[in-house]
Amino acid sequence: MSIIWNRREFLQRASAATMAALAAGAPVSSILSSCKGKSGSDSSADTVILLWMAGGMAHTETFDPKLYTPFEKDMEGNRVLSTFKSVPTILDGIHFSDGLQSIGKVMDKGTLIRSYVAADMGHILHSRHQYHWHTCYEPPQTVAAPHMGSWIAKELGPKNPVIPAFVDIGQRFTVGEAEELKAFHTAGFLGNEFGPFFIPDPSQGLDSVRPPVGMDAKRFERRNQLYNELINNSPVGEFGSDYQRESLKRSMEQAYALLNSPESKAFDLSTEPKESYNIYNTGKFGLGCLLARRLTEQGARFISVTTEYEPFKGWDTHENGHTRLEDMKKQIDGPIAQLIKDLDKQGLLDRTMVVLASEFSRDMMVEGKPDAKVLEQVQQPDILSELKFYGMHRHFTDGGSMLMFGGGIKKGFVYGKTADERPCKTIENPIKIDGVHQTIYHALGIPEDTQYEVEKRPFYTTPDGKGKAVMELLS
């Protein structure tokens, strides 16, 4: 019988894991010397850009369209498989949902995955599935599991010592399930220096690397000294290890170095040529893609750009699914396509892996999976009397789409398949999260048995070290 975790239980266990990570001290590495990712001969990628479609992107409305059924008042909901027409891509016989034509034109440079299957974790919570996607571990854990970006930052280090190895663009913690989102935006037991450098608003990215207005260098330096004092008097200082305390201090030193470097100009989007800026300027996510490109040029190692999860907004289409997706596609289509083209033109795409993903998909009628349905969370009528019910509103975990470009990924390739009739579930080559993570790690040259000893047991990049790279995705 599946355990149903509610929001409070999730937070309690996440907080306990954080304190356990502090008490654990420095993780003991068993294989640091065998990590060969730093040498180009054992890897096909140096950098990863994660384009995170937070909230549950419906595969049948985006990259895996089914039969289009236009809205009619009092129509049967079960008839609706896709609410958008399909349009051809550059790949023969492969169509995307209307509104994604620009991305469709660059698919000769990447791979389309149509068979992502999310985990069965009982009652579906966005934060739990997002935690699982980003860490590869199902919550709750007895220790704070590191984010994928933190694993990469730890194992490979920064490409440019001045640029933070892990940059997170677009995520705020003032909206929605803030504490739950914080639970996986962390380096966990690896130490704070490998955690994300947050840029909540890319249009104000320069503010992230300079002192507040009115603060001179001397005052900033005094704040740096105060920060060290605060560390010593914080829970980390009291309960943590020397490793944890030094990790916090190193993270501050890295920020200070960036402040005084010429690379800090990469954060200033006002210096981007107007023609290029306008293509990316579809909103916060589009400008995040622009900042990701500029940081890749300067040597960032892992960059996450999110559409940001906020309950009942964005991809979280509990109502008005069709009209909501019209807007979401306008936000992502041009910037993502331009990002791929710019990286390719500059010769960076070959060593930069770009991944587009979401925590799960959506369906109009099925919550969970056909053979593992869970508690219904949406009042969806069988007969659609209003346009607000037209769209994919329920959480669907048995099929989903991802895109991957560059960094050794095959070009013009399609992997997996879902059924053309409801339930539009995966019927060929299912891929789960441990396979996704290990494929990325493999491309970076990080061995699948990478582990640290935490609480006297090995903690791997994927659970029990069993994740296997999906070699069919790699050229």
TrEMBL record:
InterPro entries, A to Z? Alkaline_phosphatase_core_sf, DUF1501, TAT_signal, TAT_signal_bac_arc
Identify the domain of life.
Bacteria
Pfam families in the record: DUF1501 (PF07394)
- This protein is called DUF1501 domain-containing protein
Organism name: Dyadobacter fanqingshengii
